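Q: Could you fold this chain for me?
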Amino acid sequence: MESSIAQSIHRGFEQETWQPVNNGSATSEDLFWKLDALQMFVFDLHWPEQEFAHHLEQRLKLMASDMIEACVKRTRTAFELKLQKASKTTDLRIPASVCTMFNVLVDAKKQSTKLCALDGGQEFGSQWQQYHSKIDDLIDNSVKEIISLLVSKFVSVLEGVLSKLSRYDEGTFFSSILSFTVSIRMSSLLLPFDCCHGIYRTAKKIILLIVSFLLKVKAAAKYVDVPKPGMDLADTYIMFVRQNQDILREKVNEEMYIEKLFDQWYSSSMKVICVWLADRLDLQLHIYQLKTLIKIVKKTYRDFRLQGVLESTLNSKTYDTLHRRLTVEEATASVSEGGGLQGITMKDSDEEEA
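A: Sure. Below is the predicted structure, expressed as structure tokens.
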């Protein structure tokens, strides 16, 4: 009996497509149905020998626990493998199969209460309690692990975004190129105008040509809709967050686990940004860095608040530190850039509704 069901589980998971079926997958639904049907069949026999009836009940419960344990472990392994293959960029959208695996574990938790709880006397119940608690712990730990894996995957996407922003750190090529025109013009002034040597005259002409070209490009940019890389980065990340929130909210069956996932996702995201900023305490943020971070932080705050994350989590010490740093950077940029933030402000984090 046990070997037949065990082989059925093995074959089922080998061929599992992880398409949603009722509360889980095809294999998990088949397993839970078989275990329930078997227990109901034996129960309906009303075995006259009380001691043998308790022994049979205990054996069936032990078998159910073993089968559910195997199901949970196979699902946990499949979940990790699937997530490892998923993208680490803002193109990531949680596959439906991952949500199905999540639901299998959620359903296993519910089914274990029904299929593994022993209804026999105190003697059997006390012997059983420790074994049954191991099954509950296994399921609870597996759910915690997959939530942690999901959060780690989401955070890795944010780290990729911050890595791109790092290219604009003060002193790097990208941050310096915007002031390249001014630097060249200053250099050209240092050349002696009465220099008779051909090499200096040639160098002067080349520099003046470069300056002229860059000034024309700068003038033309006023009439061309030049895309802002920082804002594109923020927009794609915000879309990534919102769409994955919607997918999880729609496809995962247990609200309690979604709340835990969103809490950890928000907290981890704020912590990663805060650490990134702490590494740049001695640097003034580039305007693209500042605009991107303000938009990401304010939208992240708003979106997770709409998803039900508690105020105590939203307004953590990490968020307060982050808010203060970006507010100071915003004030500095407003003076030095002269409106370069284009209306983007940390104040929107608390007031913006769209």
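A (continued): DSSP finds 14 helices and no strands in the chain.
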